[in-house]
Amino acid sequence: GPDQFLQVIHVIIATGEAVILQHPLAVMIGKRLPPLVEHRFITVENWSGLEGMGNFDVVRRQMPDGKVYEGRTVRTFDPKTRLWRLYWMDSNGGPIDPPVIGSFENGVGLFFCKDYQVGRPVIIVFRWDKTNPNQPVWGQAFSDDNGKTWEWNSSNTSYRVK
User: Which of 33, 47, 137, 159 lies in the 20 to 30 Å Cα band around 22?
Assistant: First the structure.
């Protein structure tokens, strides 16, 4: 239900600084993954909303060129289908990404959508693992063969900076 996602979100992105290790976002299908890069976010903020049926976050970090990157997630929960929809947008411009749709089972959430990457149709999966509530893990993979194989191209382990 809605409490499952709210629990993981409150652990992952409580207001304050967060450190996330992830692969650079310029990864394309079929390419070897570059080394992990540490990103220190300036702020990560989260709000509940929609009468308990959703939540929102904003992440900001300073880029090496001094500009501030900002991303936002809107999450909505449908109590009839028991599915979450996660929408992402960022300061790089362009349209809001298609929502990834899914749910949690035994502390792991899987969320899928169809999209295009480098002009090719792909299935995208987000995986939220909150089995360790002190260090929840998020990952993203693309499949260009209708889900037969997956290329995990981005992941992060989140924790609060003390």
Answer: 47
Closest to 102 measured CA to CA, from 91, 92, 113: 113
Is this prediction's pTM over 0.70?
yes
> Measured between alpha carbons, how far is 140 from 156 in angstroms, rounded to an integer?
9
Neighbours of 14 (CB within 10 A): 14
Length, in residues, of the chain:
162
**Spatial distance between the Cα atoms of 22 and 134, rounded to a whole number of angstroms:** 18
CA dihedral angle for residue 29, residue 98, residue 124, residue 134, rounded to 10 degrees: 120
- Cα 84 to Cα 40, 114, 126: the distances in Å are 27, 16, 12
* 19-125-25 Cα angle (round to 5): 45
